[in-house]
From TrEMBL:
Transmembrane segments: none annotated. It holds the Pfam family SBP_bac_1. This is Extracellular solute-binding protein. The keyword Signal applies. Keywords: Cell membrane, Lipoprotein, Membrane, Palmitate, Signal. InterPro entries: Bact_solute-bd_prot1, SBP. Residues 1-21 form the signal peptide.
């Protein structure tokens, strides 16, 4: 998940000057500027004496930082972010950003030549583990967590277990990007048919029937479907999320052992539900064969009642319909319908965006260590240094606007430096998190569709979700791949009526490596402290 999110951010960085212009409604709302004193506030914090230690803030420190970046190209001598860092923290800050495929080799060369970086940010934990086992990194972050409360306060049992090596914390998990995917439903169709928001599987099935059969768009044509998907001919696509109505999905920690939704029957409940949808023709007939992009014309033209999507759906639909504002009211969030005590949650989000650590050499320099800790703390959302590095507040003349009703907006109009020096986006790579709720656009003000996107995403972030137990596991990739194939083949065969033998499938799944995975997961969950 971390890698996919990072790729999304790269895409945003590279095309941010155009991506939302065509999608955003021209209708604007009232906004008020956020305080832009990030530079002075962060500098003031950086100059404060560390409790119990001598104040070294007047001593200039050289800090080398190597990271996974979005753009991975150097900036010129006029880089305002470098100037801001140097002046704010009294440092000579040297940033080098590399793609994920190159970072490990670059780090190995630097450490082998006895010229290690001071600060490291990596998307792949295995890169950190390899260096840690060589004894060249800080041995344990635990004693320093009280110096970085903004970051350490976000740690969960899962994220701490993720960086646990022999009882020691080998790195700092950065803030994860919140999940903004949830089921979206045509609110106007509910209103037209005088239906309530469904809260159970049975109620959802009734809504899907009426969305398909009762002319919800009132055009007197039989041209709508209750739901759709984009399986690309390989899996159930977003329909698999319906399993969460009935309980947790996948492999997860439960009491004293690892449990599987395939074995405990939760998966079968989802398959039976989807089979009913397909049998009753409540779904777009191309749901299994079409891909994500192929499905969009039906979605954007108003033929589908329920979809699993982030809030950007509003802007995409608006852009596909001339950005007139006519479609902004189409979709609202549908909380996950609930059946049983463990059902009704969204899927787990990521447990981090990457890992921060420092070299052993940097850790042994008390002045440098103190400065690095201050930089990490001040750069963590929602502290002022975050807004400076991620969005340029106090650095490049950028302003983050508070939007009425919640959310924040950044206008890229008049952006002075990054359009010609995209490598400057990499100052924000290691701190970035979608928790900031920011939508960016080349418009001067947020449009109504921007506001609606913020609203939907904000609501989704507040919805309950399952813990990401699987993120702490390191399971045999070949077994995982083979079982995924076995499951995908059985799922579509069961739904289309080619078999009813679910018990036989479970036995085959266990014999084909499923039991091996469960045994190994139980062992790893115990080592991580998630089960006793």
């Amino acid at each position: 998940m971390t890698r996919r999110l990072a790729s999304v951010f790269l895409l945003v960085a590279m095309i941010s000057t155009t991506v939302l212009t065509a999608c955003s409604s021209n209708k604007s709302g009232t906004t008020s500027p956020s305080p832009s004193a990030a530079s002075e506030t962060a500098k003031e914090s950086a100059n404060q004496e560390t409790a119990g230690n001598e104040d070294h803030s007047s001593e200039k420190v050289t800090i080398s930082f190597i990271e996974n970046g979005w753009v991975n190209t150097p900036t010129d001598d006029n880089d305002p972010w470098r100037k801001w860092m140097n002046e704010t923290y009294n440092v000579d800050f040297k940033l080098s950003a590399y793609p994920e495929s190159d970072l490990e080799s670059k780090l190995m060369v630097q450490f082998a030549s006895n010229d290690p970086p001071d600060l490291i940010y990596a998307w792949d934990l295995n890169t950190v583990k390899k260096l840690y086992k060589q004894g060249v990194l800080l041995e344990d972050w635990t004693p320093y967590l009280d110096k970085i409360p903004a970051l350490s306060g976000t740690f969960t049992d899962q994220s701490k277990a993720y960086v646990n090596e022999g009882g020691k914390m080998i790195g700092l998990p950065t803030l994860p990007n919140p999940n903004t995917y949830s089921f979206k439903i045509r609110q106007d169709w509910l209103d037209n048919l005088k239906l309530q928001m469904p809260t159970t599987p049975e109620e959802l099935l009734d809504v899907l029937r009426k969305f398909t059969r009762d002319d919800p768009d009132q055009n007197k044509k039989n041209d709508t479907w209750g739901i759709s998907s984009a399986g690309s001919g390989t899996n159930l696509g977003e329909l698999s999320r319906l399993e969460l109505m009935f309980g947790k999905s996948g492999i997860f920690a439960s009491n004293s052992q690892a449990e599987s939704s395939i074995v405990n029957g939760t998966h079968k409940k989802m398959l039976d539900f989807v089979k009913t949808i397909v049998d009753e023709k409540l779904i777009d007939p191309d749901w299994y064969t079409q891909g994500w992009e192929q499905r969009k014309p039906k979605l954007f033209s108003g033929k589908v009642g329920v979809t699993f999507y982030p809030g950007v759906l509003v802007n995409e639909v608006e852009g596909g319909n001339g950005a007139t504002g006519a479609t902004i009211g189409w979709f609202e969030n549908m909380p996950m319908p609930k059946a049983g005590p463990d059902g009704g949650n969204l899927p787990p989000g990521s447990i981090n965006s990457g890992i921060i650590t420092i070299s052993k050499k940097a850790a042994e320099d008390p002045v440098k260590l103190e400065r690095i800790l201050k930089i990490i703390e001040n750069s963590t959302y929602p502290n002022d240094g975050y807004w400076a590095l991620r969005w340029g507040v106090g650095v490049n003349g950028q302003k983050v606007m508070d939007v009425e009703g919640g959310g924040k907006f950044v206008s890229l109009k008049g952006e002075l430096y990054r359009p010609d020096n995209k490598g400057a986006y990499d100052w924000g790579t290691w701190v970035a998190t979608g928790r900031d709720g920011v939508v960016e656009s080349t418009n001067e003000q947020p449009g109504e569709s921007d506001k609606k996107q913020m609203k939907l995403d904000r609501e989704t972030m507040q919805m309950p979700s399952n813990p990401n137990d699987m993120a702490v596991l390191s399971l045999d990739p070949q077994i995982v791949s083979d079982l995924d194939t076995l499951q995908s083949e059985f799922d579509i065969k069961y739904i289309l009526g080619g078999t009813k033998d679910y018990d036989g499938f479970v036995k085959k799944w266990l014999a084909s490596g499923g039991q091996t995975l469960l045994d190994e997961a139980t062992k790893q969950f115990k080592q991580a402290g998630l089960i006793q």
